[in-house]
Write a structure and sequence with these properties.
This protein is mainly α. The chain has two domains: 2-25 and 248-528, Glycosyltransferase, CATH 1.50.10; 28-244, Glycosyltransferase, CATH 1.50.10. It is built from 22 helices and four strands. It has helices spanning 2-14, 30-42, 46-58, 76-85, 93-104, 108-120, 158-171, 177-182, 184-194, 205-217, 224-236, 250-260, 267-280, 308-320, 325-338, 362-375, 381-401, 424-436, 446-458, 467-477, 481-487, 513-528; strands at 28-29, 243-244, 500-501, 507-508. The strands form two sheets. It has a two-stranded antiparallel sheet with strand order 1-2. The longest helix has 21 residues, at 381-401. The model has no long low-confidence stretch (mean pLDDT 93).
Length: 529
């Protein structure tokens, strides 16, 4: 095992960049490539569009469809958008529209963009009535009212609400068209103000591509938002002509790498990483989600959005890097203000509702508890008391969400082989990490939860089918090391599996996940022994 740990640690340290960060690489995405290529085609930028179309042709699955990542089985949405981009038949317009709307239910975050691309590709017989009108005019309200307006999209999708609402309005005016028309210039100004310097909304090709193609379809192709979005797509295309769903998860993988390499970094490396993480903490209100200062997003790029998972990870990493408490206290307050009434932690915004990625979830709740545990003895007494109360509420939420078999389901990770595409190994391991780190005397409800969680996870040691899941189970239970060594060829090979779930449940793999998780597991096992 020692040789495997040395091999894996050397590989991970070699990935550390001079700026004090890890970068990683997300898998190329057929859906992102289809959307980006089509948007560029609409703009008349045919060279890059053609390269994207060629990548799609060469990465078609044997069944004729496409999955979210090259390792993924074909799915309806990716295949539909790829066929639109390649100008292939996709079926009858009315049946198609009904199927998409039914599939996504009340959440219009993804269904309406899909239908809009189908329409712009000429696949819906130019019948704009098939596409629900998104109320883009609601964007003019102050953001504090959004949670009361029952927006049909989740909190991060305001650019889509505006751009896709505009293209529907311009092509099929509704009964309220005279009111909406008066607000067009105002919502375009709002859209321009929330667009990051890079031009990429969320630093993501799919969302940016949907916005760009919609503005072009609405007659605003020369608007700065459309042009900057197209510039972002041109700058993020890969050498093979494909796009990933996002530019990187640098802050996330940097924080996880610090945790995995605990005790293995030099003073110089720790200083460089610490400075980088502190520089990526949001010091102002976020222009997109209006999140308060103090949180971290998944990337150092300005299009990233502060969220609970990345903030918790950064706080834990900074504690291990010897950071003072000032920056940590701002992050802790940010998390405290995010906690929902049910005691759980949502991803971005408190109280937005039950739409995907805006609800409480066990893995984020447990991660927040771990961040609080890391800093309990370092903050002032008033903040300490608030953290204690928050942790009690968090444990009560975890108690309520533990499944009958003892497991927990995460929100941002899944398993393509699971019938429900859930990943209880990831979720349970992450919750148990938090339960292990607290004193049961202080939190009596922890003992029973921990026992049931361990019993379930131990039954899964030999059933995991990815390095990522196996490493998490090994780290928490201390069992299954031989299986992990076999899967990684003694710490020398780390094929990534698509266990990540991006916005709208898009599957992705991250090149560094299996390496980071393996180092973390083996380092923990060695420390125990």
């Amino acid at each position: 095992m020692n040789d495997a740990l040395q091999n894996a640690r050397g590989r991970l340290l070699a990935e550390l960049l001079p700026g004090g960060r890890w970068e990683g690489a997300l898998s190329s995405s057929a859906l992102a490539t289809a959307v980006a290529s089509f948007a560029l085609k609409q703009a008349g930028r045919s060279d890059l569009a053609t390269r994207g179309f060629q990548w799609l042709e060469t990465h078609r699955n044997e069944d004729g469809g496409w999955g979210d990542s090259p390792e993924s089985p074909s799915n309806f949405t990716a295949t539909l958008l790829c066929r639109c981009a390649l100008d292939e038949d996709i079926g009858l317009p009315q049946e198609l529209a009904d199927s998409i709307l039914e599939s996504y239910g009340n959440d219009r975050t993804f269904s309406v963009p899909i239908l809009t691309m189908c329409m712009l590709a000429g696949k819906l017989s130019n019948d704009w009535k098939l596409i629900p009108q998104l109320p883009f005019e609601l964007a003019v309200f102050p953001h504090r009212f959004y949670k009361f307006l029952r927006l049909p999209v989740v909190s991060y999708a305001l650019p889509a609400l505006i751009a896709i609402g505009l293209v529907r309005h311009k092509n099929k005016p509704s009964a309220f068209s005279f009111v909406r028309e008066k607000l067009v210039s105002r919502v375009l100004d709002i859209l321009e103000k929330i667009q990051p310097e890079s031009g990429g909304f969320l630093e993501a090709a799919p969302l940016t591509g949907f916005v760009a193609m919609s503005l072009i379809g609405a007659g605003f192709g020369d608007h700065p938002v459309a042009q900057n979005g197209l510039r972002f797509l041109e700058s993020t295309v890969r050498e093979d002509g494909s796009w990933a769903i996002d530019v990187n998860l640098s802050t996330w993988v940097t924080s996880l790498s610090v945790r995995a390499l605990d005790g293995m970094l030099t003073d110089e490396q720790e200083s460089s990483i610490r400075e980088h993480l502190l520089a990526t903490q949001w010091q102002t209100e976020h222009p997109f989600t209006h999140a308060a200062p103090g949180g971290w997003g998944w990337t150092y790029e300005k299009g990233g959005v502060p969220d609970a998972d990345d903030t918790s990870a950064a706080l834990i990493a900074l504690r291990r890097l010897g950071c003072d408490a000032a920056a940590a206290e701002n992050g802790i307050r940010w998390l405290l203000d995010l906690q929902n009434r049910d005691g759980g932690m949502p991803t971005f915004c408190r109280g937005w509702g039950k739409l995907p990625f805006d609800r409480s979830c066990p893995d984020l709740t447990a991660h927040t508890i771990r961040a609080f545990v890391a800093w309990r003895g370092e903050v002032d007494s008033n903040l300490f008391k608030k953290m204690e109360r928050s942790m009690v509420r968090g444990f009560q939420y975890l108690e309520k969400t533990q499944r009958a078999d003892g497991s927990w389901r995460p929100l941002w990770f899944g398993n393509q082989h699971n019938p429900n595409h859930e990943n209880p190994v990831y979720g349970t391991a992450r919750v148990l990490e938090a339960l292990i780190e607290v004193n049961e005397t202080d939190f009596p409800m922890v003992g029973k939860m921990k026992q049931r969680g361990f019993q379930w996870l131990e039954t899964m040691i030999n059933k995991t089918d990815s390095i990522e899941e196996t490493a998490l189970a090994v780290k928490v239970t201390g069992r299954g090391v031989e299986r992990l060594l076999e899967m990684t060829k003694g710490g020398t090979e780390f094929p990534a599996a698509p266990i990540g779930l991006y916005f709208a449940s898009l599957w992705y793999s991250e090149r560094l996940y299996p390496l980071i998780f393996t180092v973390d597991a083996l380092n923990r096992i060695q420390t125990r022994s």
